[in-house]
Amino acid sequence: MNKLTHFNQAGEAHMVDVGEKASTERLAIAEGMITMQPQTLSLIMEGGHKKGDVLGIARIAGIMAAKKTSDLIPLCHPLMLTKISVDLNPLPEQNAVHCQTTVKTTGQTGVEMEAITAVQIALLTVYDMCKAVDRGMTIEKIRLKKKSGGKSGTWLRE
């Protein structure tokens, strides 16, 4: 079994030293969804929400979150990200909005945390903008779909 890398020999939390790792292209794709009342999804899709373009604002929030991940997660490295995309798609048959993020960098550590953080914050922004009409929304199924680059290579969710 592999050991947790964010603890030293004494069991103390520390930032992993990536200085000796090769600089490679790194990519991570994450996803999640928010389910809601059909009327709430209609407001989002019709652009009839009084707060404005819900999905456009959530997209920007997700991008900003990816860039700020190291400020939120204590042991994450600050990274120079080369790509962040946040795609939000209404799913009327599920009364939901699906979010998929793609994050890239060329560096010594991966971007999984940035991709997952972007999903969470984009969906949380949808919740924030719509909570006045639907407090029962549920954010769910947030997960890593793919990562590539680095010594461990490619991992793909089945």
UniProtKB/TrEMBL annotation:
InterPro entries for the chain = MoaC, MoaC_bact/euk, MoaC_sf, MoCo_biosynth_MoaA/MoaC, Mopterin_CF_biosynth-C_dom
Q: What class of enzyme is it?
A: lyase
Example GO BP: Mo-molybdopterin cofactor biosynthetic process
Query: Residues in domain Molybdopterin cofactor biosynthesis C (MoaC)?
Result: 15-150
Q: Which UniProt keywords apply?
A: Lyase, Molybdenum cofactor biosynthesis
Q: Where along the chain is the active site annotated?
A: D128
Task: Name the chemical reaction catalysed here.
Answer: (8S)-3',8-cyclo-7,8-dihydroguanosine 5'-triphosphate = cyclic pyranopterin phosphate + diphosphate
Q: Which Pfam families match?
A: MoaC
GO molecular function term, any single one: cyclic pyranopterin monophosphate synthase activity
What pathway does this protein act in? Cofactor biosynthesis; molybdopterin biosynthesis
Q: Which residues bind substrate?
A: L75, C76, H77, M113, E114
TM region(s), chain numbering: none
Keyword check for Lyase, yes or no: yes
What are the EC numbers? 4.6.1.17
Q: Which PANTHER family match?
A: MOLYBDOPTERIN COFACTOR SYNTHESIS PROTEIN A (PTHR22960)
This protein's assembly is summarised as: Homohexamer; trimer of dimers.
What does the UniProt record say this protein does? Catalyzes the conversion of (8S)-3',8-cyclo-7,8-dihydroguanosine 5'-triphosphate to cyclic pyranopterin monophosphate (cPMP).
Family statement: Belongs to the MoaC family.
**Protein name in the entry:** Cyclic pyranopterin monophosphate synthase
Natural source organism: Candidatus Thiomargarita nelsonii
Specify the taxonomic lineage.
Bacteria, Pseudomonadati, Pseudomonadota, Gammaproteobacteria, Thiotrichales
Its gene is moaC
